[in-house]
Amino acid sequence: MTFSAELWDAGAAKVYDEIVRHPFITGLTDGSLPHDKFRYFIVQDSHYLRSYSRALALVAGRATDEDAVSMFARHAAEAIEVERELHSSLLGSLGLTSADVDATGSGPTTTAYMSYLTAVCATGTYAEAVAAVLPCYWIYRDVGRALLERSSPDPLYAQWIATYGSPEFDAVVESVLAVTDRLGAEVGPGERDRCHRHFSTTTRYEWMFWDAAYHELDWPV
């Protein structure tokens, strides 16, 4: 079994099943999701992608070969471009501006997820950092694939689905999975356990991110 398959089977398979059944996801495909919930999601995703870019830059700094350094550094830059390009068009369609995103700030789930990623990528090993950032790549790719089969009657949702269900994004994810599998031969038992823990935790944060958007979760005080 590859290292990535090992991580998925132990820490993601059941959570992924819950993600694709979540009313936020099913509401995207049938068009029933209220735009207010999608607006919350796009605002929070803007904050998340800014932090994810920095996390990927940290992964690049810890990478042990030049190809991986180049790849993760490129992905860090691309995360910013996605935030600027895709979200700019979606924000305009939702009646929002970048200033509105900044004024809203990151919600509790977004802040917790960003903080966890940053901490692992800054203080963990290279393998731990890769395990922590991997679910965002992988789950968005697989969700995009699943949703692309049905797309959505809502053009906003169809636009978002097309981005993550694209062959281009699939190639990006496959390159990260290949790095993960190569690392699997190098990590010892203790580090492997930590990789499993980080992968499982950020996978759960992926579900929590969708759920926070569905409930438009705000700070309690």
UniProtKB/TrEMBL annotation:
Hydrolase keyword on record: yes
Pathway: Cofactor biosynthesis; thiamine diphosphate biosynthesis
A Pfam short name: TENA_THI-4
Catalysed transformations (reactions): thiamine + H2O = 5-(2-hydroxyethyl)-4-methylthiazole + 4-amino-5-hydroxymethyl-2-methylpyrimidine + H(+); 4-amino-5-aminomethyl-2-methylpyrimidine + H2O = 4-amino-5-hydroxymethyl-2-methylpyrimidine + NH4(+)
InterPro entries referenced in this protein's UniProt entry, alphabetically: Haem_Oase-like_multi-hlx, TenA_E, Thiaminase-2/PQQC, Thiaminase_II, Thiamine_Salvage_TenA
EC number(s) reported in the record: 3.5.99.2
Coiled-coil ranges (or none): none
Gene Ontology terms, MF aspect: thiaminase activity
Reported function: Catalyzes an amino-pyrimidine hydrolysis reaction at the C5' of the pyrimidine moiety of thiamine compounds, a reaction that is part of a thiamine salvage pathway. Thus, catalyzes the conversion of 4-amino-5-aminomethyl-2-methylpyrimidine to 4-amino-5-hydroxymethyl-2-methylpyrimidine (HMP).
Family indicated by similarity: Belongs to the TenA family.
NCBIfam families in the cross-refs: salvage_TenA
Name this polypeptide is given: Aminopyrimidine aminohydrolase
Organism: Kribbella caucasensis
